[in-house]
Amino acid sequence: MANAGASGPTALRILLGSELRRLREKAGVTSVAAAKAIGGSESKISRMELGRSGFKEADVAILLSVYGITDAEERDQLLSLTRRANQPGWWHSYGDVLPSWFQSYIGLEQAASRIRTYEPQFVPGLLQTEDYAAAVISLGDFQSEEVERRVALRATRQRKFRDGALRLWAVIDEIALRRPVGGPEVLRGQLEYLMAAAKQPGLTLQVTPFAASAKHAAPGGFTIMRFADPQLPDVVYVEQLGNALYLDKREDVDRYTLAMDRLSVISATPDESIDIIGTILEGI
């Protein structure tokens, strides 16, 4: 069985789903037959195997029997994993301000060991100061109390990076760094924070200069997440207006990885990027 030590319920669901798919295929059971056994649909089996939904322990127990898993220790391991995968993450306490489609992203983000992100509009959320985050969130016309809750959520998300448990590679368009979000002082504080953060070993920061903007291969921002457990596939996150795409098919991940590689090549080096940020600061 795959290592069940991965952090966070989202990663555990992916691990469990992957293991259930492996056991089903090894047993020669079709997804239609598996669905019939638990009184569900084929799409439910698909969601379970992709880790996109919660798991009923009774359903998992039935599937294990259908797949011929009779060893008591192996069954106990998988049922224990099921219970752990169903435990809510810390972010569920922000359910009042957190869209359901974004909860999956936070779970993946918290489970990731490496993240590569391209941002053409704003500084990435994991690198935002509280004042800058409040200004960005306020663009959504939220009430002040909701803005405060969302800022607190963003700050909590950043702990893993600040603690050195996450390696982050961020490519940011120069225009995003010049956009006067929150006014000159807020932007100044944000840029000064970026210059300081860029010295941390866990961050690779690149700026895509104006001159290179016409050469990049990505029409919008996206994030690629990689996990410590090799059995967890990379996941590409593409946010849209009111929802998001989560892509883990090899061909999709490869396409976005190639786009990220090209962006990294045409962007300024980390040292050059600090110089660009410094120049922008001088003009504020």
Topology pattern, helix = H, strand = E = HHHHHHEHHHEHHEEEEHH
CA-based shape: elongated
Largest sheet geometry: 6 strands, mixed
Radius of gyration: 21 Å
Taking strands numbered 1, 2, ... along the chain, how are they ordered across the largest sheet?
Answer: 3-2-1-4-5-6
User: Fraction of residues in helices?
Assistant: 40-55%
Please give a structural write-up.
With 284 residues, the chain is an alpha/beta fold. It has 13 helices and six strands. A six-stranded mixed β-sheet has the order 3-2-1-4-5-6, with helices on both faces. A hairpin with a 2-residue loop joins strand 5 and strand 6. It is elongated. The chain starts with 8 loop residues before the first helix and ends with a helix. 31% of the residues are buried. The N terminus is likely disordered.
Could you give a quick summary of the protein structure above?
This protein is α/β, with parallel strands linked by helices and 284 residues long. The protein has helices at residues 9-27, 31-37, 42-49, 57-66, 72-85, 100-111, 130-138, 144-157, 159-162, 174-178, 184-197, 250-266, 270-282; strands spanning 112-119, 167-173, 203-208, 222-227, 235-240, 243-247.
